[in-house]
Amino acid sequence: MLYKLKPNILKTSYTLLKTQVFYYSKLRVAIIGQSTFASEVYKTLRHRGHNVVGVFTIADKGNREDPLAESAAKDNIPVFKVKSWRKDGKAVSEIVDKYKEIKADLNVLPFCSQFIPMDVINFPVHKSICYHPSILPKHRGVNSINWTLIQGDSEGGFSIFWADEGLDTGPILLQQKCTVDENETVDTIYKRFMYPNGIKAMADAVDMVANGTAPKIAQIKEGAS
């Protein structure tokens, strides 16, 4: 048997559904990092409707701001320039307190050269996700693309993973692979694949977290380096 709903009931149901979809598909995001790559991730997340509530980046180098700081400042997003998150082996409480005030749902670390305290990493309800330019667990740490080429890997790529206490050891959210050409250089593979695909993948990863579809796949021990 079919029932005809009254117009006001239909309108109410649609409004509730629309509100629920909006709530689950948008996040309050803190971006922690630096570089043009981080700036482009910032712009992409805002374009997709996520609410970037704060940007934490490195201190100015002379009179030069980091590109991430420049982009956020133009949009009147709070920018925090951090020389160091730690002092004498301990988290700097003033910085951590400022971070907590923005009440982010998720930390996004597109490219971050600083050691972030676990108090910050684990503070948001959705914790923190990071970008790393290798297929983890291979080539953890710095100069990952260099090591991909030095070791003659036929395949490269990047990983987006959940931050934990280790160095690039957290569970995998997503990975994308690419072939490594015979005459490949750090510059060519970065511009061809790591940079453009990485920006989109970071935004895709945030969408997955927002929609509850982001996996946490433990890294395998075999091949770790």
TrEMBL record:
Gene Ontology CC entries for this record: cytosol
Entries under SUPFAM superfamilies matching the protein: Formyltransferase
Domain Formyl transferase N-terminal: 28-202
InterPro entries linked to this entry: Formyl_transf_N, Formyl_transf_N_sf, GART_AS
Pfam short name (any one): Formyl_trans_N
A GO term for molecular function: methionyl-tRNA formyltransferase activity
The protein, known as: Formyl transferase N-terminal domain-containing protein
Organism of origin: Clastoptera arizonana (Arizona spittle bug)
